[in-house]
Amino acid sequence: MAYTYTLDNRKPHKKFKCPNCGEQKSFVRYIDRTTDNYLPEQYGKCDREINCGYHNNPYKDGYAKENMKPLHDKYILKRPIPPIPPTFINNDLFFGTLRHHD
């Protein structure tokens, strides 16, 4: 499943000041993959998991539901696969393979 909003994992990704602990260059923000733009400043995750632990996910507070656009606006239609007719082995060939077995 592809998500529209993900933590910025582009190389190199820019780090920001954490809105919770104030630590410089420890905050990774969420991006909108359809536009490649950052979400509002409060959405992201602090690298200081033990000391700070701040993580504001846009899917948890309803931001995504209100602002999300579909990643793909086309539908893929799958054709049904026709059944493969059974094949049979000639009886003489089949019984010939049963010889010389104990």
What's the short story on this structure?
The protein has 102 residues and is of the alpha+beta class.
Number of strands: 5
Tell me about the largest β-sheet: 5 strands, antiparallel
Structural class: alpha+beta
Give the overall average pLDDT: 82
What count of domains describes the coordinates?
1
Radius of gyration: 28 Å
Low-confidence stretches: none
Number of helices: 2
Query: What is the strand content?
Result: 15-25%
Large-scale geometry: elongated
The helix-strand sequence is EEEEEHH
Helix amount: 10-25%
- What gap, in angstroms, lies between the N and C termini? 55 Å
Secondary-structure blueprint:
Elements: E1 5-7, E2 27-32, E3 37-38, E4 44-46, E5 55-56, H1 63-67, H2 91-96
Antiparallel strand pairs: 1-2, 2-3, 2-4, 4-5
Written overview of the protein:
The chain has 102 residues and is an alpha+beta fold. It has one domain. Helix content is 11%, strand content 16%. It contains 2 helices and 5 strands; from the N terminus they run βββββαα. The protein has helices at 63-67, 91-96; strands at residues 5-7, 27-32, 37-38, 44-46, 55-56. Strand 4 and strand 5 (55-56) form a beta hairpin. The longest helix has 6 residues, at 91-96. The protein is elongated, with a radius of gyration of 28 Å.
